[in-house]
Amino acid sequence: MTSAAPAKTQYEAVIGLETHCQLNTATKIFSTSSTKFGEPPNTLIDPVCMGLPGTLPVLNQKVLEYAVKTGLALNCQIASYSKFDRKQYFYPDLPKNYQISQYDLPIAEHGWLEIELVDKETSTVTRKRIGITRLHMEEDAGKLVHGGSDRLAGSTYSLVDYNRAGVPLLEIVSEPDIRSGQEAAEYAQELRRILQYLGVSDGNMQEGSLRCDVNISVRPAGQQEFGTKVEIKNMNSFNAIQRAIEYEIERQIEAVESGERIIQETRLWEEGSQRTISMRVKEGSSDYRYFPEPDLGPIEVSSEQLEDWRSQLPELPAQKRHHYETELGLSAYDARVLTGDRAIAEYFEATIAAGAPAKPAANWIMGEISAHLNSNTSLTINDLPLQPESLAELIGLIEDRTISNAAAKNILPELLEKGGSAKAIVERDGLGQISDQGALETAIAEVLTENPKELNQYRNGKTKLLGFFVGQVMKKTGGRADPKLTNQLLAKKLNS
Amino acid sequence: MLDRDQVRKVAHLARLELSPEEEEKFTTQLSDILEYFQQLSELDVTDVPPTTRAIDVSNVVRTDTLQPYRDRESILDSAPDLDGEFFKVPKIINPE
């Protein structure tokens, strides 16, 4: 025995994500029923999605288009030959006792997406590529309601709603390239941004249109072999993904340290108690007995079709961020915020196209306009009465010093509510900035006379009172005094 | 060819309960069937590309056009048990 304390082992987490994303097509993947969310139970069913005898599934072409476009956006290779398979398992949410999915020939493989990590303290940005193993098309299952409540234990029966059965899904599997909860949350968010930019999914985690399962193991840093992996489910926000992973990393390290064996199992994230709980032990590796779906022919995407779909791809979030930073000179932070939502990014770009400089446009959109949208949750930027052209006009009026920033903020509520021309409002209300030296000097003289005490204090060295005087001049002129000129004239007058 | 354990496994995956006599019988029968198919491996298929189907069609798709099914009642009515608008199934037992 040596007396020296053993060096603390450093651990590394190895994480991969399996994401299921509902596509926002009008109809199901293999039948013509609606995919609408929240309809009365079993109103969106038909013989095909219920697997009744003698029915024949036919692939929705929109599903194929969306799968290929998503594959392209994720830098994948699109299969020249792809097919569907049956995955067999018994669970009452699956009307056919098999799920039509893709097994060995998925529509897309070998891609990647880039995530951006911002260090909270230093705001330095690091970028990392996360590999995409595969992307495939499949059908969703129905939904179980347990004995009138969500208590599984007490019920003697379950109720099934098959509205969701046959809703098209993309399953997107990442490589085990992720190392932390933050990276995983960032990966999921970037994936959602890409899906939303493409317009293929609303990516709503609360409604379950984006579901992320996490595979996670820990190993001593430097070790090549993976530890035993555990699957965690039931996270319904990006924040929950991060916290569930952080909890699980700690739990696994503690188990390893205390000599416990990690069991290969599925664990559920409990939002209430902020921990993961064991759901069930995995029965070996499940035997799904995949075989080719005989009712559906193979998919062979022609190179013409592929190029046509490729040409329809929009500029994607990572490309936009890059473009905003390098060509428009915005910070990584600004670029991230503006590109978080495609509609916001497009509004910003339209404002720039109408002549506004990038930085003030970014500030107005990320500041006042976002605050307005956040307090009116039913309002989206697309139906905002204030048009990008008018915002550009408003910014132009500030830039050429026709109005002060304060005056601009005063007329903004009217523009946000009613739209119209910024210039017209400025003219109507006589809000033009006072840049006339004589007029400003008069106002300054008045302010100094009215505040002899402060003037005295200033002259005795309390120079930070300059701000007070500027404020008084602003008040006197209804916010219209040119701030830069006012500052200069005031300083001159006070220090004379 | 096929042993009894494999038959038990297949039965379990298909959620079938077999008596010892049935296990015995199906082991023989399934082995016979597999042996019969085994004859195919006598063929030399070195230059034949693998196929999953006999009919040579691909890219059969339909447009994303809504056409609700009009007779959902008949689907609901064909279920063994209902509770209002829900299908009713026995309690789910966790596979443990």
| Quaternary organisation of the protein chains | heterodimer
Spatially, the strands of the biggest sheet of chain A line up as 3-6-7-10-1-11-12-13-14
- Fill in the CATH topology of the domain at 4-41 in chain B: Histone, subunit A
| Major β-sheet profile of chain B | 2 strands, antiparallel
- How many runs of DSSP E, i.e. beta strands of chain A? 15
Q: Could you say which overall geometry of chain A the principal axes of the C-alpha atoms support?
A: elongated
Stretches of chain B where pLDDT is under 50 for at least 5 consecutive residues are none
Number of strands of chain B: 3
- How does the helix and strand content of chain A classify structurally? alpha+beta
Number of helices of chain B: 3
User: Any guess at the CATH architecture of the domain at 4-41 in chain B?
Assistant: Orthogonal Bundle
Helical content of chain B stands at 25-40%
Taking the alpha carbons of the first and last residues of chain B, their distance comes to 31 Å
The shape of chain B, in one word, is flat
Mean pLDDT of chain B: 89
The low-confidence parts of chain A are none
What is the makeup of the main sheet of chain A?
9 strands, mixed
Could you state the order of secondary-structure elements of chain B as H and E?
HHEHEE
Provide the domain count of chain A: 3
In short:
Chain A is α+β, with helices and mostly antiparallel strands and 496 residues long.
Describe this entry's structure for a reader.
- The complex is a heterodimer of chains A (496) and B (96).
- Chain A is an alpha+beta fold.
- Chain A has three domains: 11-304, no CATH class; 315-429, no CATH class; 437-494, Orthogonal Bundle (Arc Repressor Mutant, subunit A).
- Chain A contains 15 helices and 15 strands.
- In chain A, strands 3-6-7-10-1-11-12-13-14 form a nine-stranded mixed sheet. A three-stranded antiparallel sheet of chain A has the order 5-4-15, with no helix packed on it.
- In chain A, α14 (466-476) crosses α15 (483-494).
- The model of chain A has no long low-confidence stretch (mean pLDDT 90).
- By secondary structure, chain B is α+β, with helices and mostly antiparallel strands.
- Chain B has a domain at 4-41: Histone, subunit A (Orthogonal Bundle).
- In chain B, 36% of the residues lie in helices and 9% in strands.
- Chain B is built from three helices and three strands.
- Chain B has helices spanning 4-13, 20-38, 72-77, and strands at residues 61-62, 82-83, 86-90.
- In chain B, α1 (4-13) packs across α2 (20-38).
- The longest helix of chain B is centred in the N-terminal third of the chain and has 19 residues, at 20-38.
- Chain B is flat, with a radius of gyration of 22 Å.
- The interface between A and B is large, with 54 and 36 residues.
